[in-house]
Specification:
Helix content is about 35%, strand content about 25%. It has about 575 residues and is of the alpha+beta class. The chain has five domains: about 80 residues, Phosphorylase Kinase, domain 1 (2-Layer Sandwich); about 200 residues, Orthogonal Bundle (Transferase(Phosphotransferase), domain 1); about 60 residues, Trypsin Inhibitor V, Chain A, CATH 3.30.10; about 70 residues, Trypsin Inhibitor V, Chain A (2-Layer Sandwich); about 70 residues, Trypsin Inhibitor V, Chain A (2-Layer Sandwich). The strands form ten sheets. The chain has a six-stranded antiparallel β-sheet, covered by helices on one side. Strand 9 and strand 10 form a beta hairpin. Helix 7 packs antiparallel against helix 11.
């Protein structure tokens, strides 16, 4: 904290982290504005592949200018650290909103999806394919605006890049069938991912799920999702049609562009009919499964293992001409003795024990999880915590010692330390104690930490606040101790009981109250004192009496002395 990047951007706090970079909130000291700065992790500083991918993100997004895309302001290198400066978006991710609110209403869902679609239409018009559209990469501002971010695996939509195959990119729950196969991608791959988000927003769950990434990836290729209208009530046939057309296995059956997708969204909102013919995807081939398995496994195996695997696959691909009888014999042996083992080897993923990473830093947790064959989740959440030190992990998505499949990602929540809030001014004009406490609670502090201290005061009435700790506008821990000094009135002393005998009850009461005494009146008949005259008092005149105590006056009810 406080470090300056490029002699211009002053780091204020960490706001997020992923496998490749850490994101900070920072102040642009030149333009006096708040920005977000993404810094490549130190362990990747010497990895040219990571550096190229990191810089490609800046180049891809910097070429775009749209209200629904996070703007890139600057890119640079400070010492050995590469960084990107971008627009600071105050809010939360769309994934957070899904966890808290899904399923969403049709109106709110369309409002969000339309904005993402418009961002994609702009990116595609500029020949940029995002390739990793998912709720975690959609930031939602406090006023409901969606902003697409993280173009880290984006590629230019050109002939040169469309031939890139063999690697699975994107998040497995949201990747298109062609990405699952490691085949070429185009703008329609982003539309498929947007269709998954639309499905999740309206139903509250993703259409494809499973125990392993391979299982989920194969479902993208092989299985048809259940109609949203059957998952949750209230989904129209027209909305079903838009979602299912977005999720078509074949790009020929899918929306051709984001603009075409948005056109059907507009027709939906104006009540027009949307035609869609359900088509069943062709069953996947062994080749598809091999590509999925290889593509996913390439993401987690070591470099040496990867080389050995590629050598093995390469050798297996060499074609040899064999006599027909020999070929039949080989096939027979494979069928009888090898198929079961091949299937087992293909789909088997070993179980591993989830380690305890609570109390560790993100970097420490990442290494510990990697040692067990697990991955740290890219979207790390942050929360205030007064027990766990700042930048240390509070909780993890899988409990320690749980058995899970190798390659699984473990999401974590990291402590932002103790939360500090500005303390309000609750002494101006000496408000009532109740009003002062309400103001403190409204500022975000907790009632259990407020202590009331009564103090005598010669002029301020009882029950009014005369002092506070902490002072006004102080930055104070949310759960810190708070003391309010409240007036108990002026100090009461011993007095001599005045003689009010013979006075009217009204006059006597006025005199005694001036002595700060509480008066209780009783009546009795008298032939000596006129009606309403005070006959006697308790205490008697001249006796000591403490201010604030109760005294009694006896008042004549007549008939009084004769004329």
């Amino acid at each position: 904290m406080g470090r300056m990047f490029g002699d211009r951007y002053e780091i204020e706090e960490k706001i997020g982290a992923g496998g490749m970079a850490i994101v900070y909130k920072a102040k642009d000291t030149l333009l006096n504005r708040t920005v977000a700065i993404k810094v490549l992790r130190e362990q990747f500083a010497s990895d040219e592949g990571f550096i190229r991918r990191f810089r490609r993100e800046a180049q891809s997004a910097a070429s775009l200018s749209h209200q629904n895309i996070v703007s890139i302001f600057d890119v640079g290198k400070d010492g050995q650290e590469d960084y990107i400066v971008m627009e600071y978006v105050k809010g939360q991710t769309l994934k957070d909103i899904i966890r808290q609110q899904a399923p969403l209403s049709v109106e709110k869902t369309i409002h969000i999806v339309r904005q993402i679609g418009e961002a994609l239409a702009h990116a595609h018009a500029n020949h940029i394919i995002h390739r990793d559209i998912k709720p975690q990469n959609i930031l939602m501002t406090t006023d409901g605006r969606a902003k697409v971010t993280d173009f880290g695996i984006a590629r230019a939509a050109s002939a040169a890049t469309l031939t890139h195959t063999g690697d699975i990119v994107g998040s497995v729950h949201y990747l298109s069938p062609e990405q699952a196969k490691g085949a070429q991608t185009n703008e329609q791959s982003d539309i498929y991912s947007l269709g998954i988000i639309l499905y999740e927003l309206i139903t509250g769950k993703v259409p494809y799920d499973g125990d392993t990434p391979i299982t989920i990836a194969l479902k993208h290729i092989q299985e048809e999702p259940e109609l949203p209208g059957k998952v949750i009530s209230g989904v129209s046939a027209e909305l079903d049609a838009i979602i299912m057309k977005s999720l078509a296995k074949s790009v020929q059956d899918r929306y051709k562009s984001a603009s075409e997708f948005l056109g059907d969204i507009d027709r939906l909102m104006t009540g027009q009919t949307i035609v869609w013919e359900r088509k069943i995807a062709e069953e996947s081939t062994d080749s598809d499964q091999t590509q999925v398995h290889k593509g996913l496994r390439d993401k987690v195996i070591s470099a040496d293992q990867k080389g050995n695997l590629e050598d093995t696959l390469h050798k297996g691909k060499k074609k040899r001409k064999l006599p027909l009888p020999a070929l039949i014999a080989i096939i027979s042996v494979l069928v009888l003795s090898g198929v079961s083992f091949a299937i087992y080897s293909f789909f088997y993923v070993p179980d591993v024990v989830v380690p305890d990473v609570k109390g560790l830093t993100i970097e420490e947790a990442e290494l510990k999880l990697k040692d067990e064959g697990l991955l740290l989740g890219e979207n790390i959440e942050f929360d205030f915590n007064e027990e766990v030190e700042k930048d240390k992990i509070i909780s993890q998505s899988y409990a320690p010692d749980t058995m899970v499949k190798a390659g699984r990602t473990v999401d974590v929540t990291v402590s932002k330390g103790m939360e500090f809030i500005k303390f309000p001014d609750v002494t101006s004009n000496n408000p009532l104690q109740e009003n002062a406490v309400n103001a403190i609670l409204a500022a975000g502090f907790e009632n259990d930490n407020i202590e009331i201290e009564m103090m005598l005061h010669p002029t301020i009435p009882t029950g009014r606040v005369i002092g506070q700790n902490p002072p006004p506008q102080a930055t104070w821990p949310k759960n810190g101790k708070i003391t309010l000094s409240v007036s108990g009135g002026e100090e009461l002393t011993m007095k001599v009981m005045p003689d009010v005998t013979g006075y009217s009850s009204k006059e006597a009461k006025s005199i005694l109250e001036a002595y700060k005494l509480t008066v209780r009146a009783e009546t009795e008949s008298s032939l000596l004192f006129p009606t309403d005259a005070v006959i006697s008092t308790i205490p008697r005149p001249g006796q000591p009496v403490k201010q604030g105590s109760e005294v009694k006056i006896v008042v004549s009810e007549g008939p009084g002395p004769p004329p």
